[in-house]
Every structure is written in structure tokens, then in C-alpha cells.
Amino acid sequence: MSTKQSIILYSTWGCHLCDSAEALLKQVEQTYTVVDIVDDANAFEKYRLLIPVISAGDKELNWPFDAEQLAIWLKEVK
Predict the structure, then answer these.
(1) Domain boundaries, given as residue ranges, for the chain
(2) Cβ(12)–Cβ(35) under 8 Å?
(3) Which fold has domain 7-77?
(4) How confident is the model at residue 5 (pLDDT cuts 50, 70, 90)?
(5) pLDDT single digits (tens) 37-77
(6) Quick one: CA torsion of 54, 73, 1, 8, rounded to 10 degrees?
(7) DSSP assignment letter at 76
(8) What is the DSSP letter of 75?
């Protein structure tokens, strides 16, 4: 029996790539939580030059990706 992973989008205000990643999550109808790296010192240190990053547990999907790549990744992490 597998447990469902929480999906996190590491992002920040004013990041157009992050807006694109969020739109893709909405397009594939995936629930997720947004973490603004400015509000999280650990996330800022880890992701500041990498955002947007989507995370589920210890698995990450780094930008760039499209809806098809996102859907495949989501199947792998569930």
C-alpha cells in the first residue's frame, strides 16, 4: 500500500517561470502547496537559483518541464 505524497511548488513572487509551472499543475488538475522561498530560509538556500521546483517527498522535478513530463513525474511519485 502506497501513501500519497504531498506536492509542493517552490516558488516566489514575480517569477514568471513559477507562474508557468503553477499553470501546468492546474492544467493537470493536481493539488499542491506553494512554498515561497523568501519565507523559508532552508528553501531559499536550496532553491534560490533553481525555482520553480516541484517536490514530492525526496523526489523533485526541476524546470524546464511541460505538461506531459509533469504528468509522467506525478505518476512516478504517487
Answers:
(1) 7-77
(2) no
(3) Glutaredoxin (3.40.30)
(4) confident
(5) 999 999 999 999 999 999 999 999 999 999 999 999 999 99
(6) 10
(7) H
(8) H
Read off the C-alpha cell for 58: 525526496
* Residues 6 or more apart in contact with residue 31 via CB below 8 angstroms: 7
CB–CB of 55/8 below 8 Å? yes
Identity of residue 57: G
Write a three-state SS string for 15-74.
CHHHHHHHHHHHHCCCCCEEEEHHHCHHHHHHHCCCCCEEEECCEEEECCCCHHHHHHHH
At 6 the pLDDT is 95
Tell me the CB-side half-sphere exposure of residue 57, using CA atoms within 13 A.
10
Q: Which residues pair with 36 in a beta bridge?
A: 11
